[in-house]
Design a protein that fits this description.
five-stranded mixed beta sheet; 8 helices; alpha+beta; 49% helix
Length: 184
Amino acid sequence: MDAASTRPAPSGLTPEGGVLVGSDNARRRLVVFEDPQCPHCRRFEEASGDVLRREVAAGAVAVEYRMRCFLGPESVRADNALVLAAEHGQFDQLRREVFAAQPPEHSGGFTVEDLLGLGRRVGLGGDDFVTGVREGRYEAWVLEADRAFQDLDPQGTPAAVLDGEHVDPSVLYDGHALGALVRG
């Protein structure tokens, strides 16, 4: 991702700056744009998260999450924690915890202590994760990535692209329809 290349980038991301869940050799690729504070993204996770995890496990699809932070500093802090979790192989686990504990938009939530507690729930209590969250290691990178993703996500979050084709947003909230689409 050219826009974010001027800042230290987290390891283990796609060249576009996303976090891949599943095999790079999966039959299909679903790119999902989410903001951790977005209540619609939480609804998407609640409706379709388990279906996507099953399809990923079956090798039908790989999901590349490109995390946005346009809803403010709370999202920037959460995205920083998520990329740190990705470096430790715990991205999807922390992502689920983040959405389960999602505070109202612009409420000051996702504090450093909140994120450290969520990290501990998924086994992220090591010094590197804790220090990275406390110091905001990748916050500047997260902001640059968000600017790059804005052009690719003009409709807002959640948004998805399956094999280069935009997915009808209503399908994201229907696990059965989304599962059929990715298997298609």
